[in-house]
Amino acid sequence: HNDVSYPPSWYVICVAHELAIGQTREVEAMGETLVAYRGADGRARVTGGNCPHRGSQLFRGGHVEGNQLVCNAHGSRWNGETGAGEGRRRCPAKLRTYPVRERYGAVLFWYHPEQAPPSFEPPPLPTFADGTPYDTLHWRSQEPYRTDLRYFLRDGIDDEHFEHTHRLPGAVTTACQRGHVLDAYTRSPMAPSRMLAVADVDVPIDPHTWGERLVKGLAERMDRWQHGQYEFSDVMHGAGITFQEGVTRFPGAGIEMFYLLVSTPLPIRPGLIQARFAVSQPVRGWRPLRRLHM
């Protein structure tokens, strides 16, 4: 596989509640098959998918005993953190393992093509200026995207993407990079019907139900007299974690809506990625989005 396509970063391999104690999950990522499992101590671990003993597939028949991953072919036992063989049939070879963190209700692993240690930690979720947190994140997965990771990430700062995909003509983005962090700020005019169109990209609205027809009809009528502003801040931490904080304001109607979107793309192989998104709204209050000074 082509390591050049997979930049060093933290990536979400699964949502935390999808990995119960003693459970294994087979995950296609980085052009190969990985195994995620949770030991008896409650900690998640991520390893390569093939047993170093004789190459047997750990994701087919491998199981968890205590905190070890056991190969079903010959009973080889592996430490899922160090990669060392353990037990009576100890194998001198090492199983590839990945640093793991649990954040945001998800399991993240660190990938580096040369197996270098993490160069940064997964950042905490954004909070308001007074420390007020966002509410519980609600995760969902999309069907795999047939695109390269670099194109998927570029869409987060691409005004043409905002215009043609999210129907936001007039969007203007500024961005700057500091080390592994890319910081971008976008603002665009917003009409009520356009707000529905933006949401419709990720949460399709059924035009055949009377409720949805009513909502769209009211939004189109509001377009005649109500205009607002949509602005959001994208902060990308490496290639695998993006925090987007957004607000839509309609001053004439006294409406302000705030949200947090967490985007976590995972490369499956060149030209194909798995995208997961988590959405939340403030528990209470809000903080103004900062504007970048370029």
End-to-end CA span:
38 Å
Please tell me the overall pLDDT: 82
Radius of gyration: 22 Å
The residue fraction in helices comes out at 10-25%
Sequence of secondary-structure elements: EEEEEEEEEEEEHHEEHHEEEE
Outline type: elongated
Low-confidence parts lasting 5 or more residues at pLDDT below 50? 198-208, 285-294
Q: What is the chains' assembly state?
A: single chain
Class derived from helix and strand content: mainly beta
How would you portray this structure in words?
With 294 residues, the chain is mainly β. It is 12% helix and 38% strand. It has helices at residues 149-154, 159-164, 192-202, 210-222, and strands at 9-15, 24-29, 32-38, 44-48, 63-65, 68-70, 77-79, 85-86, 97-98, 100-103, 106-111, 138-141, 172-178, 181-190, 228-237, 241-250, 255-269, 272-280. Strands 12-18-17-16-15-14-13 form a 7-stranded antiparallel beta sheet. The chain has a 4-stranded antiparallel beta sheet with strand order 2-3-4-9, with no helix packed on it. Strands 5-6-7-8 form a 4-stranded antiparallel beta sheet, with no helix packed on it. α3 crosses α4. The longest helix has 13 residues, at 210-222. The two termini are 38 Å apart.
Key traits:
mainly beta; 4 helices; disordered C terminus
Blueprint of the fold:
Blueprint: E1 9-15, E2 24-29, E3 32-38, E4 44-48, E5 63-65, E6 68-70, E7 77-79, E8 85-86, E9 97-98, E10 100-103, E11 106-111, E12 138-141, H1 149-154, H2 159-164, E13 172-178, E14 181-190, H3 192-202, H4 210-222, E15 228-237, E16 241-250, E17 255-269, E18 272-280
Antiparallel strand pairs: 1-11, 2-3, 3-4, 4-9, 5-6, 6-7, 7-8, 10-11, 12-18, 13-14, 14-15, 15-16, 16-17, 17-18
Helix pairs in contact: 3-4
